[in-house]
Amino acid sequence: MPMKKIVILTGAGMSAESGIKTFRDSGGLWEEYPVEQVASHDGWLGNPSLVTEFYNKRRKELLSCKPNEGHRLVAELEEKFDVTVVTQNVDNLHERAGSTKVIHLHGELMKMCSSNDPENPRYQQTLTADNCYVEPGTLAGDGSLLRPYIVFFGEAVPMIEPAIIMAEQADIFVIIGTSLNVYPAAGLVRYVKPGTPVYIIDPKPIDKSNCTTAKHIMKGASEGMKDLNEILSQYQQ
Could you give the residue numbers annotated as active site? Predict the structure, then answer.
């Protein structure tokens, strides 16, 4: 029999234990930078140099962080299940922990793209740890400004369709470290087949109106994943 499909939706709480600053929580990045300046299309058009430098700084911070136990436990599930991670995070910690199928809904911090045609792979560049600084004003291959491969507020989410397809196919659906207030990601649970087990790992109370049958593990990502591993043993082939 084929392995059961687990789809894991992760948010900022997944990477918080690694030292990645969240945007919305107290002390988060939105308190340092107005969102409209650094994460909106208008902000990019108004001051692309500021936006470029903001994400240069984010990359530098990311490279000083390591995957946490939660990331590693998610990756280890691939030994027993067919696992797809759908993440709202723009870091690469899932990949660095060993996850092989990751859908990034909001873009990837280590990538740059064309301003005119962000989804054209011809003009996308993947940065490396030793070459991750982008000089403001650098041009993409099509002559437009090279911009962060980030889905800015107000822009379409190009990877939502593949994520919906995976949610529809899930035998088990897991949500880690997201408030379920950020759409369209929060709506993914609505595509899960009726009767599919849903587990939420988050230390805070969660609005479960989208999925009243979900089981809530009120712990952080790493401790919550340890609990989930025990629960998932009942589903192994």
Answer: 106
